[in-house]
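agent: user wants the structure for Type IV pilus assembly protein PilW from Marisediminitalea aggregata. delegating to structure tool.
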Amino acid sequence: MRAQSGFSLVELMISMLLGLMLTVGVIQVLVSTRATNTLNQAIAEVQESGRYISMRLQEELMEAGRYDTTVSSVDNSVDLLLEASFVQSQPIALPGDYNAQATVGSTEGSSTNSDEVVVNLLAGEDCTGNSFGLVSPQEMHVVNRYFVDGDQLKCIGYSGRYLRGLVGNSTPSSEVVILDNVASFQVEYGLSDDVNNNNSQVVQFVDASQLAAARLANQQVVSVRIELLLKSEPTNIQNTATNQVRLLSEAPLTLDVKHYYQVFAVSVALRNSLNYVGSAAL
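agent: tool returned. relaying tokens verbatim.
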């Protein structure tokens, strides 16, 4: 009768080692797949937000400086010629422009803080959907203010007639959140030459702190460019991308490693201002 023999101790140890190596390999693949999926989800989330906010800002800012006195839908309870002059000559509002709220206006954020942009236009409602009692298709002077609060990009609208002290503010707007997870919002303004030169080309870009001097030099804002730094929700992986980013002419921002970050650029030609400058010297 043949004697039966099992695995030797060396064979068992080799088998266990091979099994352990296979298990570690499978775990590494699973961890790597999970990390890749998490990163891909963060990238998709940020890119979707970036596409949305780029389109929205382009559509809304493109209307800055719009005022058409030839259409019958403009509410004529105020002097329309004066209102048109105000909106067309000041598409970008500055602090001190409005009697009722002197602090409302485009500002440059201190250090690396986000900027704030305020625009004048003719519209039937503001950026929050408030029509201020108008009945469609009526329109009037509307003011939209875009700013960052915490990590939220918000907007709030005003009746331009109220801000100028012409009417009471019977239906004020409440601020609304346009987008979450905004790490930075930076704005620069493209200036024309002296409007009397009939040159609607951009001759320089400046930040909001230089707009008052540009007005005194009879220059008009004819374009706006914006860069937004968006971030994902916190992730469980470390972002291996660069830990610093610079938006426009601002100082570099230091990024943390728990979010995925991406910069989105928006450039808007203010076609209404371009037409205004182009016809100023005619």
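agent: one observation worth passing along. Strands lie at 117-123, 140-149, 152-159, 176-179, 182-194, 204-206, 219-231, 244-245, 253-254, 261-269.
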